[in-house]
Write a structure and sequence with these properties.
Distance between the termini: 70 Å
Strand order of the largest sheet: 1-4-2-3
Radius of gyration: 22 Å
Number of strands: 4
Structural class: alpha+beta
Shape: globular
Strand content: 5-15%
Length: 219
C-alpha cells in the first residue's frame, strides 16, 4: 500500500512501542486497510483497544501512525475514514475472528520530496552518518525530521496558538488552512497563505470599524 509505505509503524504485537504522543493510527495488513483511529496518547490507547480482538483475527497486521497536533487529529481521522472506508470502521456489529473481508485497494499517495542546500561540511557528516547507520540519505533525513518533530510537539502547538491569535482565528482553522495549502487540491505557497490571512485580518478590522461608526443622523 503506497499510502502507508512512508509512515512509521510497529507490528500489532509490538504496540507497546507506539509513541506516547497524539496522532492518527491505521491498522492494516499488506493488502487490507482495517481500521483508522486517533488518540491524544497512542501508546496508552493501544494497551486495551476495543478493536484488538478483532484485529488479532487477521495475519500480518501493522499499526501505522502519523504524529499530529491533538486539535487536528479528529479532522484527519474523519478524512481518512471518508476516503478509504476502513473495514472495521464501517462494520455494523461483531466481526467473526478470522473473517476475511474483500480486499480494499488504496489509491497511490503523492510523494513529496523536499530539498535543501547544506554547507559542505554538514553534508559530508550527514553522508558519513547515513553510511555508518546503513541507511539511505532519504531514510536518514526522514528519521531525523520525525525525531525533531516528536521532540518539539509542545513548541509547535505553542507557536500555532501564537500565530492563530495574531490572525484572529482558532488553532483548528489555522491547522486546516496550512494543511489544505500544502496537501489540498488548490496548493498555495507559505507566502500566498500568509497574504490570504493578512487580507482576512484587514477585512475583520474593517468590519469592526464599520460596525462601530455611528449611523448618520443619530445623536
Amino acid at each position: 500500500m503506497k499510502l502507508l509505505k512512508d509512515l512509521s509503524s510497529v507490528s500489532l504485537g509490538d504496540r507497546a512501542y507506539l509513541p506516547p504522543a497524539a496522532g492518527v493510527y491505521i491498522a492494516a495488513t499488506p493488502d487490507q486497510l482495517l481500521y483508522v483511529g486517533q488518540s491524544a496518547n497512542m501508546r496508552d490507547r493501544w494497551i486495551q483497544h476495543h478493536k484488538l480482538d478483532r484485529l488479532m483475527g487477521f495475519s500480518g497486521v501493522r499499526l501505522y501512525y502519523l504524529l499530529a497536533p491533538q486539535g487536528f487529529c479528529g479532522q484527519l481521522e474523519s478524512a481518512l475514514i471518508r476516503q478509504f472506508a476502513p473495514l472495521l470502521n464501517e462494520s455494523k456489529g461483531e466481526v467473526p475472528l478470522g473473517y476475511r473481508f474483500p480486499t480494499t485497494r488504496l489509491q497511490p499517495a503523492p510523494k513529496v520530496v523536499y530539498t535543501a542546500e547544506l554547507p559542505i561540511y554538514h553534508y559530508k557528516r550527514f553522508l558519513l552518518w547515513a553510511f555508518s547507520d546503513r541507511k539511505s540519505k532519504a531514510n536518514l533525513a526522514k528519521d531525523v525530521l520525525v525525531a525533531r518533530v516528536e521532540a518539539n510537539q509542545a513548541l509547535i502547538d505553542l507557536k500555532l496558538e501564537e500565530v492563530a491569535k495574531s490572525y484572529g482565528i482558532t488553532v483548528e482553522d489555522l491547522v486546516d488552512k496550512v494543511i489544505q495549502a500544502d496537501l489540498g487540491p488548490d496548493k498555495k505557497t507559505a507566502a500566498q497563505l500568509e497574504a490570504e490571512l493578512e487580507k482576512l485580518v484587514k477585512k475583520n478590522s474593517d468590519d469592526e470599524v464599520m460596525g462601530s461608526e455611528p449611523i448618520n443622523g443619530a445623536s
